[in-house]
Amino acid sequence: MKMKVIIFLLMASAANAFFDLRKWDTLKVTWNINPFKGFDYLPRQLSENKEFELKDDLCKTAGGKMLGQRYWYKKDPTVMLLFDKNGHIAGIQTSVLKSKYTPFPNLKNKNYIDDGDYWTLSAYFIDPSLICGAGRSKEEFEKTGTGTGLWIQMGPNAVTDSYHVPAQEDEIKKIHMGIWKMLPEHGSTLLVQRHQRYEQP
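Above: the chain's sequence. Below: its structure in token form.
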């Protein structure tokens, strides 16, 4: 479980890519507990996907609980990619088997969403309402890249219960989220200091 949480926190450091409001033009994760071993590039369009296989289409099967066409690598739920209806990257998930981990009761179906045999954490890179709706056009994807922000799912409805993380560090500090400074090349990672749902101002 520790590995999954670390991967998810490192993934959240991708927020650093849009904090300065430039185009977010890559997506990488580490598959090793040692971040010095390097990061692996992940596909950002289904057309460039060679190794991830379709797990399920959450737009058709999840009833709004989670969103996107979900792909995984060798049936490993540690990192699952979410694509919008047009095949552009829309988010990322990590899951842990229920038989291996039980979240605190106040986190069940808030941060950890019931996903069959798994508890799943989700982060979206575009407005969740677009993922199963219009999606992004090719032109929008080319203009904005990986995403336009970071939305963390904090409840059972992916559209209404996803928190849009502010793009500026000083705004994050106002809402009781911490900034964990990492090595300069890794950016910053967001830490939620209290386990509760944050309302946007």
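Residues 2-192 form one domain.
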